[in-house]
Design goal:
single chain, alpha/beta, 45% helix, 5-stranded mixed β-sheet
């Protein structure tokens, strides 16, 4: 027989408004309980006797337990004793004095009455509790209210965000039945990183498999990589896969304005972790507290961040033991972390989460396209080949933006063109066809962009052209999309060809217009960085071969340069020589193909946008084929998706249109900077 259900009774909860109501009632009580009386203490007992004999006292109240006698004055005497006395109804004037004995006062009253002075006598024994309550009640009420507020602040959440728990850890705890449902199946690509992370999870699930052979579980793993590559996503997958408690917090959660709070939170975090061992502790953006010590001396003052780091180092691998507590951390600035934090025993493994390669991008696209309705013309492999340098977050943004564009056009599915528009929107911004440009400016922009296209088409290592437009987009007045080839190493000639193609716009302005403009500001910035990297970092200079002044430790060289002033002059001369040579080379190519450049510029002026097919009609097929060209040639029916741009900015902006890095970064490829 099923048990009868209990009736649902209303739950009475304490509310802040109750406290407001109590205070209001207390104040109203003081207002209405006030008897509108005024009183003062007499100097001595003889004054009371004079008032009685003068007939100014109506009633005397004796309080034996307090040793006080109160006298109620009549109107005439009250006006003499109190200047503010008005004689209104209900208004009282009272004087009082201390008495040594109530019996003595009683005898005096009998004598005064016998002499003809009529005085009413009243005995009153007041309660000590009520007097104490009226005296200390308001203070007690305020203390209780303050304690309740502090308790409410400290218990607002479980992360210890109150005043009394400022030193408590702010870590969020996720159990195996928690809200995180991300697994390794949801993490596309990152095969090597997942292998190492899965081994840690497997150890927690089946430790005997490793301990029987004498192996020990790694105490910590540091996820290192550029932003958006999936470091935090991997940690979420670990939380979803491991059947152990998972503590998650950010490095900035240790930072507080109070001295010693960071170290206290570290101690509290590891105390909780030891209680729930075996468990995993994840610290995101650990560089907030893990920065190398001693770089910024605080003039002898107490450095809170260094104290926090010292406590973290001790807890991870100090005199005590943390058996069963595994530390996961993520950062994109591993070069600035303290060396003691990176040593074996604390972070035994550094797992590099790099930008996804071709196969990884295919897998990432497949994950994000599961929830998107796409048509049959979409080629995921082609999308992946045309998005080198895109992180997982960038690919997710492209897919989401394409879906929004399709919905804006009321399309039933997301097509290839929607993805083209999505990349254009993300990299360059919205088209600004309403932007006012004169015919002279429009022709200058077309000649500039046609110069880029002409030079890059006739260089072996330059990136293949995909699309050129002179429609203003974002801050740029014109843009050219290219399809860069993925390279693990870059030869010298590839860098020079890229610089030459970048300078093609400025060279075309000088040759075919007769003057130059500010539109090439971004081109010059990129070329200068590339030339500087060739000389200072890669040792690709004729006068300064095999020299690199790049410090991979991230400590830099302070205020002093690692070379003399004479060497600095040589570096400047080499950078200028390389740029000037490529500029003259670009002008020579433009002179050779001047007719084709002119046709290309006219097509741009008339149509505002051209594609690879238009360039092929003018210059013919490219002489060189890359692996990207081959995949595109095998699918002629599909147009390429723009990935990378070079821009011709107006005079008010030098910003680069593309967010992807140039083929040759300012630092070595293996650097995190």
């Amino acid at each position: 027989m099923p048990l009868p259900k209990k009736p649902n009774r209303p739950v009475i909860r304490f509310s802040m408004y109750w406290m407001y109501a109590i205070i209001l009632i207390f104040l109203l009580g003081l207002l209405y309980l006030d008897d509108n009386s005024m009183s003062k203490e007499l100097d001595n007992y003889n004054q009371l006797e004079k008032l009685v004999k003068s007939g100014g006292v109506e009633q005397i109240t004796i309080m034996p337990n307090k040793g006080i006698a109160q006298a109620l004055l009549n109107d005439s005497t009250a006006k003499k004793e109190f200047s503010q006395y008005s004689g209104k109804k209900g208004e009282k004037a009272i004087v009082w004095t201390t008495i040594s004995s109530s019996d003595q006062l009683s005898n005096d009253l009998k004598q005064w009455q016998a002499e003809g002075h009529k005085v009413n006598v009243k005995y009153e024994r007041s309660s000590d509790f009520s007097s104490y309550l009226w005296s200390f009640g308001p203070i007690i009420l305020m203390i209780v209210f303050w304690l309740w507020m502090m308790r409410r602040m400290s218990g607002r959440d479980n992360s210890g965000g109150g005043v009394f728990s400022v030193g408590k850890s702010k870590a969020k705890i996720f159990d195996k039945d928690g809200p995180i449902q991300v697994t390794f199946k949801d993490v596309a690509g990152l095969s090597e990183a997942k292998t190492e992370i899965e081994e840690i999870v497997e150890f927690l699930k089946n430790p005997q498999r490793y301990t029987n052979l004498g192996g020990k579980i790694p105490k910590g793993a540091l996820l290192v990589g550029p932003p958006g590559t999936g470091k935090t996503l991997l940690a979420k997958a670990v939380a979803g896969e491991a059947n152990v408690p998972f503590f998650s917090m950010s490095g900035s959660d240790f930072v507080e304005m109070f001295v010693g709070v960071g170290a206290s939170r570290v101690r509290d975090l590891f105390r909780q972790a030891k209680e729930k061992a075996p468990c995993i502790v994840f610290i995101d953006e650990i560089d907030a507290v893990g920065r190398a010590r001693g770089r910024n001396p605080n003039m002898g003052a107490n450095d809170e961040r260094e104290n926090t780091l010292n406590q973290l180092l001790t807890e991870m691998d100090g005199f005590g033991t943390n058996s069963g507590v595994i530390i996961l951390a993520a950062t994109n600035r591993a070069d600035i972390l303290d060396k003691a934090l990176l040593r074996a025993g604390r972070f035994d493994r550094q797992i590099y989460v790099d930008l996804p390669d071709l196969n990884d991008r295919v897998a990432i696209f497949n994950v994000h396209l599961k929830k998107i309705k796409t048509d049959e013309t979409l080629d995921v492999e082609l999308l992946a080949r045309q998005t080198p340098g895109f992180s997982g977050a960038d690919i997710a943004n492209v897919c989401n933006e394409a879906a929004l564009i399709a919905a804006r056009h009321n399309s039933p599915t997301v097509s290839r063109q929607d993805f083209i528009d999505a990349v254009d929107r993300i990299i360059g911004g919205l088209e600004k066809r309403s932007k006012i440009t004169t015919e002279e400016e429009k022709r200058s922009i077309a000649i500039h962009e046609a110069g880029h296209a002409t030079v890059s088409w006739n260089l072996r290592y330059a990136n293949p052209l995909i699309k050129v437009t002179i429609v203003p987009r974002g801050k740029a007045l014109g843009a050219a999309w290219y399809l860069p080839e993925e390279r693990q190493i870059t030869p010298t000639q590839a860098i020079l060809d890229e610089m030459c193609a970048t300078l093609g716009g400025r060279a075309a302005e000088e040759l075919f217009i007769g003057h130059i403009s500010t539109g090439a500001a971004n081109d010059l910035e990129r070329v200068t960085k590339q030339a500087y990297a060739m000389v200072v970092y890669y040792g690709m200079s004729d006068k300064l071969p095999n020299l690199s002044y790049y410090d991979s430790t991230g400590q830099d060289y302070g205020f002093s340069k690692p070379y003399s002033d004479e060497r600095a002059k040589m570096i400047d001369e080499e950078v200028s020589r390389i740029i000037n040579e490529q500029y003259e080379r670009a002008k020579e190519i433009l002179r050779t193909y001047a007719e084709g450049h002119s046709k290309l510029a006219e097509v741009l002026i008339s149509r505002e946008v051209i594609f690879t097919e238009d360039v092929e009609k003018i210059f013919g097929k490219r002489k060189w084929r890359s692996r990207t060209d081959e995949i595109l040639a095998s699918k002629p029916a599909e147009k390429a998706l723009p990935e990378k741009t070079e821009d011709k900015n107006d005079s008010d902006s030098d910003d680069e249109l593309t967010e992807t890095p140039p083929p040759v970064p300012a630092l070595p490829p293996d650097s995190d900077k």
